Known about the structure:
Layout: E1 15-23, H1 28-40, E2 45-50, E3 54-56, E4 67-76, H2 80-93, E5 108-114, E6 119-121, E7 124-126, H3 135-145, E8 149-150, E9 155-156, H4 157-163, E10 170-172
Antiparallel strand pairs: 1-4, 1-5, 2-4, 3-4, 3-10, 6-7, 8-9
Helix pairs in contact: 3-4
Amino acid sequence: MAIGKVKGCCNLRETVCYISIGSNQGDGRQNCRNALTLLDKVPGVNVLTISPCYRTEPVGITEQDWFINAVVELKTSLSARALLREMLNIENIMGRIRELKGGPRIIDLDILLYGQEVIAEDDLIVPHPEMHNRRFVLEPLNQIASFAIHPAFGISIRGLLERLSDNRIVEKIT
Length: 174
């Protein structure tokens, strides 16, 4: 997969976003790769950087397989709502079934940051409301965007990671 490829003409209204990718069913790494490939094919989305993959301890429902997690930096001309719609479509294409909140999933895509926007709608909250509490999000995000500022807190990703009390296991695997 080509990273940072140019898709059409430059758009001055593009927004840099960070998306988390996770899986704990089947081949988690391959599921994440497949989601990335589908995401990169979306018109108006240009994948820029991919964090290393991490093997992570589950949060919430702990009696399930461990996850493979990563974070992707992308540039998009899509609105946050349109990007969310595309991400949900990718989850559906890949066979995600939403039976139990926090339960096992073949793929999970979440918008962590959408530029410096703060969005609070019923079905779209950005920045992700739990990202600052989750080591499995902050570790890979710190690898590719330690300088990024959380728009609601005014603290860098590195700063959030340094303040984090979550002690769950997060192991870099790639």
